[in-house]
Write a structure and sequence with these properties.
single chain, about 725 residues, alpha+beta, eight-stranded parallel sheet, five-stranded antiparallel sheet, 15 helices, about 25% strand, globular
Amino acid sequence: MHITTRARTVLLSTLGVILGMTLSPALGQVLIVDNTDPGFTVLTENWYTTSATGQYGSDYRYRSTTLATGQVEWRPTIADSGEYAVDVWYRSSVDRPSDAVYSVHHAGGQTDITIDQRLNGSEWVPLGVFNLSAGTSDRVVLSSDADPGNTIVADAVRFRRLDVGETVPEVRACWLSHYTYVGKSELALRQMAQNMLAGNMNTVYFAVYSGQTVWWPSQAYKAAGGSWGSSTIDYCERLTRIFREEGLSVGAWFEYGLALGYATHPIATAHPEWLARDRYGDEVTGENGGFVFISPGHPDGTQLIVDMVRELANNYGFDDIQIDRIRWGRKDTGREYGYEQVTSDLYQQQYGSAPPTNVNNAVWVGFRESLVNDVAERCYGAIKAANSEIVVSSAPTGYYGIVQHMQRWSDWVSGGYMDLVMPQMYKTSLSTFQTEFDLQIAEIPGHEDKLGVGYVAQGDDDWSMVASQLEYARSSGVPHGCLWVYHQYTSQIAIQDEIDNLPSTGEPWEQPAHNPFTSPLMVQLFADDDDGAPKYDETGIWQDSAQTDYFRFGSRIAAGGNGAEATFRVDIPKGGRYDAFVWYTSGANRNDQTLYEFSHYNGTDTVAIDQRAGGGQWVVTGRWVYDAGDSASVTVSTAGSTGVEYTAADGFKLRWSGYALGDANGDDAVDDLDFVELANCGLSGPGVVGGTTCEAFDIDDDLDFDMSDLPEFQVRFGK
């Protein structure tokens, strides 16, 4: 059942008596006004009512955008004035408008926010943080004046008082080149993170693909002919772990994108057919002293890029994966490339003629833009398929990138396959920055909430300039920013000294902030056979495997009949349901009934896997409940195998996949908000649907929510 605002206090008290709990009727300063609550009003025209899955409460309102414009409002009763996070709930669909305008009336006036109701439905979607006055003067109004021919939805609005010390939602980031971190000690890396935090930054993007190499053991890159930056250190694992432990959101900066490096690069020489070329057959661009690019039209070359970002999403705990240089190269004035055979053939197939020799021909430009768009969309899909909680962002070039590189990133945003863009608006004066910014923001009307700014500081005294640019962007509704710091060149290649020259505390950001794009539900945990105790332990006789389909730098094997065991362990930072995966090297001599024993909150489960096939990738083995603070483990053994059968031990992964242990909203607390959800769910009996908030109350993980789960909920409530 659904609890209305008016009935919440009564139901909390009644259910509290049943469970013997003391409940707070204030609900922690969180107010939810549903379309059935007294605070909801239809202001003009008729809004119809229907019910379906994915709504908030029992039903929702809707209206055709083709009809006369109608309005509805949600008007809460605010007990205490202050800063409130305002979120909306709607049921998304392909026939929703992309430009639904929610008008927030607050103490400072009125702010209009455009939401694409085709996306992100059936969850709380943020409108922003606003200063609301006590009483009933402030409200949210939705108009049906939107894309005609669609159906706009009015469902629920949440008003959440920010606790004392809670921070504002702004991306405060910097980019780190590989020159900055390669070879640095763990202490030095932690000092870097502390320096960023002292400058009120909350996010770091470090280059994972740069310097004509990769800084993780990429099997895809190696198979294509490339080599790794290090054969012993996985910098993606190392930096992600350290920076997250220090309190930063961490992004993988996929800097090179479609750029391979110089024409002598091993992949370029092994696959010349992959390269973009001008109409004279030259593949060498004017960028970085002569880089070559993979053609956005080549299926095998672009598949390498997709496979690489998929590895980053599958094998690490990145909050964000930021793709860069997904575009054409440039020789001089731009648009010179795309005449390689594969792209010419694609154009011939579509238009029945060879590409025009005029590089600025509108149809030819649009065709090449569409190939770039396709690569961006495929990268987005690969990352989200691996883990939907990972943010996918991009650092496109400035406005000239649209004009010269055929990198129309606004299509990525409007098409729903980019979460955040941080264009490189690198200008060294306020006036030139304002011109660049105005050009960029004009590209994405209605999607300004997905726009950030790439700022540049070229000298030690540039911070006042950056601050003035930040202020201009903020005043235009774009608070998110990322800094690129380079100066004091010592060679032809800029050796970045970002860390020594980041802002002092409060410069240019004076107040702390959190990254509103990254998700607390993005939790992926790993243990590898190279990690050593306590993350990895062996008993019995183990040896290195000769197979090459390993995770990171190698794998271990043990012959049957000797009672060997290997145990992987990870610490659980956040309670919930987790999907469990294992990685092994496969072969004809492997144990076809390899036993894995998983230890979790509700006990242990043993799973048998045939290691003769399916190796060299993450193999899902089950979904179990884990509690925050637990040390989760899996033990693989040679039990039941003969002396000629080998068992492999390589990797263990847990990926957060759902709510559990009474925490129905994933905020790491079992409180009044969860109790409201409990009342909505009721005692379900057998067959709790996986992936819903009601699943959180199936604490013993027996596929129902019943009286056996209630005592544990009672213990955890308010703890």
